[in-house]
Amino acid sequence: MSTSYRSTRSSEQSTKTFEEAVIQGLATDGGLFIPSEIPTIDQKIIERWSKLSFQDLAFEIMKLYISDKEIPDSDLKELIKRSYSTFRSEDVTPLAKNVTGEHENLHVLELFHGPTYAFKDVALQFVGNLFEYFLQRANKDLPQEQRKKITVVGATSGDTGSAAIYGLRGKKDVAVFILYPTGRISPIQEEQMTTVGDKNVQTLSVKGTFDNCQDIVKAIFGDKEFNERHNVGAVNSINWARILAQMTYYFYAYFQAVGASGKVKFVVPSGNFGDILAGYYAKKMGLSVEKLVIATNENDILDRFLKSGVYERSDDVAATLSPAMDILISSNFERLLWYLARDTLANGNDLEAGKIVREWFTELKADGKFVVDSAVIQTALKDFESERVSNSETTSTIKEVYATSKSPKNYILDPHTAVGVCATKRQILKDNDSSINYISLSTAHPAKFADAVNEALSSFPEYSFEKDVLPAELKKLSTLEKKIKLVDRADIELVKSIIDEEMQKMGL
Ligand SMILES: *Cc1c(COP(=O)(O)O)cnc(C)c1O
């Protein structure tokens, strides 16, 4: 069983515990943590799992990656139960079957029923509880001044910030500071973040761009003195616990679509490759998935890589209708590259794979790209396919599905989900095989991306954003008091002094 973790870049065999991998986030050699071995399950276990609730399934999966000496079974069960009690759906991630009205075998996996209406909640609700659990255990019986604390500092251009805040609000010994560019995130996203009243949460509205915010956060991480004083942590998308928590819905959705066996393709709107990577682990564990389809917007580094073998950062990020996927490079892709290197070039040798990955990333840093052998792409294509979707295709997909859906009528996709559904329809045409079930992942509620949805649907006379899209819970946010700290210069010293000051007020 695999309950220890190694780095994707290490040339040493040394490993970390689950707790170390989660709290540390990134390995000291710059690599990402992966399990020393992927646990596998047989068809008998699949049969048994196919009848479990989401929570019980999450427990069975996580148990294979976390030693019960680190987290006893009863504690893990309790953590899972608490993490998913905040979801509005009993299924946690329900599958909307045959929702487009056009293809009986196209299903939409709704991942947006958590507190912030986006898929990141599935992981971050769990990660928040996990952080608190590890801290409480370390701090047991310690006097106040010796308690270990974590100060989470992050920059957001939208979804990640609110999901992190809702994951960590009210958690003991944890402070959260989220920076965002003033006036450059959507009103709903700002309301979601700034109306959280918990004392341990502070949003910082920074006069500047998202890049300014991100640079400040990077500088804070690099500031040794500040770091030691506040124990600065991140909950960014490379954290192993996020990938682990996301595996559950691949199994659960598969079982809901076809039971214990059947042909399934997953289509995943992708940016940093965290979501679809969880599907890769599910497949390698033994879930019989035909293919995982990467759906990208115009920021298409992943699609280009699979078609050309060249992993190349473009000069500029394109601002698309699906902003949560606007990335230059995909941070989690390094994990897949490690498996591709091991299985294709390194004869299964772990240490050799780490060396190859290190070389690729040295090249990427120096030249902005690296090229892999065609054999590596052949290996990748055994598990993956890819589709690139333009802005205009995104809009027309929202329109089409609204017009054709019958049960429920007028189903409304958010633009990220629309990228996935557009890619799914292309796949259905290409494959021309009605025995395949397509599960298209829906990563956000449409209310979060009002402009894109309104642009697509305003020509329908009966359509109304207020009536058809906006949930009462989100509508209410605009009436709540906002807690915002304005930072009128994008300046690291200024941000550090504000964090110092606010930490005092929080009593941390
Ligand atoms: C983060 C996010 C994505 C992309 O997920 P990755 O794990 O980065 O590939 C897609 N859609 C929405 C709405 C998101 O918030």
Please tell me about this protein's structure.
It is a single chain. Helices cover 46% and strands 14% of the residues. The strands form four sheets. The protein has a six-stranded mixed sheet with strand order 3-4-14-9-10-13, with helices on both faces. Strands 8-5-6-7-15 form a five-stranded parallel sheet, sandwiched between helices. The model has no long low-confidence stretch (mean pLDDT 94). It has a domain at 95-115 and 243-329 and 384-457: Rossmann fold (3-Layer(aba) Sandwich), CATH 3.40.50.1100. Strand 6, helix 7 and strand 7 form a beta-alpha-beta unit. The protein is globular. The two termini are 39 Å apart. The chain has helices at residues 18-24, 43-49, 54-63, 73-84, 120-139, 159-168, 187-194, 210-222, 224-230, 240-258, 274-285, 301-308, 333-344, 350-367, 374-380, 391-404, 415-431, 450-457, 465-469, 472-477, 492-506; strands spanning 5-7, 33-35, 95-96, 106-110, 150-155, 174-181, 201-206, 232-233, 263-269, 289-296, 310-312, 369-371, 384-388, 436-442, 484-487. Helix 3 packs across helix 10, helix 4 packs across helix 5 and helix 6 runs parallel beside helix 7 (187-194). The protein has 21 helices and 15 strands. The chain is of the alpha/beta class. Bound molecules: pyridoxal-5'-phosphate. Pyridoxal-5'-phosphate is lined by residues 118-120, 159, 237, 269-275, 324-325, 416, 443-444. Pathway: Amino-acid biosynthesis; L-threonine biosynthesis; L-threonine from L-aspartate: step 5/5. Belongs to the threonine synthase family. Residues 93-346 form the Tryptophan synthase beta chain-like PALP domain. This is Threonine synthase. Catalyzes the gamma-elimination of phosphate from L-phosphohomoserine and the beta-addition of water to produce L-threonine.
